[in-house]
Design a protein that fits this description.
- This protein is mainly α.
- It is built from seven helices and no strands.
- Among the domains are: about 5-100; about 215-250.
- It is about 60% helix and about 0% strand.
- Helix 3 runs antiparallel to helix 4 (about 70-105).
- The radius of gyration is 62 Å and the shape is elongated.
Length: about 250
């Protein structure tokens, strides 16, 4: 039996009254599933609290007077929140079942089919197909190039210089025998006479003239190589220093 609202107001606080009012119509029909879950958790917590209080009071009275009977208000509050909890849970179950029925009634075609991941064997087959297609395309291109190079006209081909001009024998005139020219005699090649080599004469060498010639050759090489005048100046200064040292020794 549902406890009347007047009795609820006399026993509960304002927050508890709002909770009990939400568990009854018409407010119960306006709640969402998330709100139903939140209010059901609050109602379960309050119900457990007053249920434990009722049991503790009954144990206390049984020890004192020998008859365990809880207070009437505690018993009523435990019943109030038990009814609220049952109301929330029934409404939530109805909403859950209706939503699941609607989702099952939708056609399966609307849900996009998930593509299955390719297996290792499937990937290997696709890879082989792609490689075969690439090889076939390369073979076609190669054939086109070879065909273009092999269809050159024969008139454009010229005999090479290495081919002898008189390889084919001369055809005989009509009604007569072949008049082939006799083979030419091989010419004898004379060997060149040996040249007698005379021993070179011993030349007299002048050291001063030789030094001048070496210096002039060096200066000519510097000029030809495009060296700067600074390098040439260093060379001349080094020569002068060497000459000064030689003069000092003498």
């Amino acid at each position: 039996m549902t406890i009347p609202a007047a009795k609820v107001k006399s026993l509960c606080t304002s927050a508890e009254i709002e909770l009990v009012r939400a568990s009854r119509k018409p407010q119960l029909d306006e709640l969402s599933p998330a709100e139903l879950k939140r209010l059901a958790a609050r109602a379960r917590k309050l119900h457990d609290k007053w249920r434990d209080t009722k049991r503790s009071q009954a144990r206390h009275k049984s020890r004192v007077a020998g008859l365990g009977k809880p207070a009437d208000n505690t018993k009523l509050k435990a019943q109030i929140f038990r009814e609220a909890l049952e109301s929330f849970e029934d409404r939530l179950q109805k909403l859950t079942s209706s939503n699941s029925a609607k989702s099952a009634a939708k056609p399966a075609a609307k849900s996009p089919a998930k593509s299955k991941p390719k297996t290792k064997a499937k990937r290997a087959v696709d890879h082989r197909h792609r490689r075969a297609a690439v090889r076939k395309g390369l073979a076609v291109v190669k054939d086109l190039f070879n065909e273009g190079a092999g269809n050159a006209p024969l008139s454009t081909m010229k005999p090479t210089a290495a081919e002898p001009a008189a390889v084919a024998p001369a055809l005989p005139p009509s009604g007569g025998e072949s008049t082939a020219a006799p083979p030419a005699k091989a010419r004898s090649v004379r060997k060149p006479a040996a040249v007698k080599m005379s021993a070179p004469r011993a030349a007299r060498v002048n050291s001063a003239e030789q030094l001048q010639a070496v210096t002039a050759a060096k200066q000519a090489r510097v000029v030809r190589s495009g060296r700067t005048t600074r390098m040439l100046g260093h060379t001349q200064a080094r020569g002068k220093r060497n000459q000064a040292r030689r003069d000092a020794r003498n």
